[in-house]
Write a structure and sequence with these properties.
This protein is an alpha/beta fold. It contains ten helices and eleven strands. The strands form two sheets. The chain has a six-stranded mixed beta sheet. Helix 3 links the parallel strand 3 and strand 4. The protein is globular and about 55 Å long. Bound molecules: zinc ion (ZN). Zinc ion (ZN) binds next to helix 9.
């Protein structure tokens, strides 16, 4: 018999990632699963996709915790006629619950961007790039310093080495010889934080999913250098933080961080 049930595990996760802090458009929390079911094995992954479900079934997971929601915009059916419906069927048939912590994990302290900042080599104090008005220690993105000044090229190589490998790797906009020490990062799509990063006076902003026009205009205007990494890779470092929270709170479950690369882009040429 499992000593912990799903409700207990969710209580711990929601203490770290309060659902009330999620964006209004977001869909976080329990997607499927019986709150009374026992939980012995918890798999952490970025995306609730078929490859992750395969891994969960094979390993015998009772719960998958993902960063991305399965249904962000709602649905009227979970019939197994769609990929998401098939996923729901697969999980329920195998007694696997699914729980998501998305924007509420982004803004937490420590949250998604703290883990990203550490992965790319920021070692000192970190502050939110866009703090909440009512809490300066929580919010989107993080700003911090490198332990020593690097060239942009050196920092890019260090960031690439610190993040899990993906088909495309990372892209850099700016002179590679430029000196950088103050860095802003934001896990996932960071387009909306470009102006905030410029106002923060950082030397480089590392995020994902940057588009041509916003990036081009930003660099033309003399903004900080940009590093665009794979969306999945920028959020993956957080999985270990989330798994550690269960361990640190004494939740007696086995945890595993999925190494399955679920970035949308599977090959670069
Ligand atoms: Zn994301």
């Amino acid at each position: 018999m499992a000593a912990w049930n799903l409700t207990d595990v969710i209580d711990v996760l929601e203490a770290a990632y309060p659902p009330g802090r999620a964006e209004s458009w977001d869909a976080v929390g329990l997607v499927c699963g019986d709150p009374a079911q026992g939980v012995e094995k918890v798999l952490f992954a970025v995306d609730p996709v078929a490859a992750v479900a395969d891994e969960a079934v094979e390993w015998g997971a009772d719960l998958i915790v993902t960063h991305h929601p399965l249904y962000l915009r709602g649905t009227t059916t979970v019939a197994a006629t769609t990929p998401k419906g098939r996923l729901v069927h697969r999980l329920i048939k195998n007694d696997i619950a699914l729980f998501t912590a998305h924007t509420n994990a982004d803004v937490a302290n420590p949250g998604v961007s703290d883990a990203l900042a550490r992965a790319v080599g920021l070692t000192g104090d970190l502050v939110p790039l866009q703090p909440f008005a009512d809490d300066p220690w929580r919010g989107l993105g993080r700003v911090g310093d490198l332990p020593e000044e690097l060239t942009l090229g050196e920092f890019a190589a260090q960031a690439a080495a610190g993040l899990p490998a993906t088909a495309w790797g990372i892209r850099v906009a700016g002179s590679l010889s430029r000196r950088v020490s103050r860095v802003a990062v934001s896990g996932g799509a960071g387009d909306s934080l470009l102006a905030t990063a410029r106002a923060a006076g950082v030397d480089v902003f590392l995020t994902a999913d940057l588009r041509h026009h916003p990036a081009s205009e930003f660099v033309e205007a003399g903004g900080p250098a940009l590093i665009d990494a794979a969306h999945w890779a920028t959020e993956w470092p957080w999985l270990d933080t989330a798994a550690s929270i269960l361990t640190a709170r004494g939740v007696n479950v086995e945890t595993r961080v999925s190494a399955t690369v679920t970035d949308a882009w599977t090959r670069g040429y």
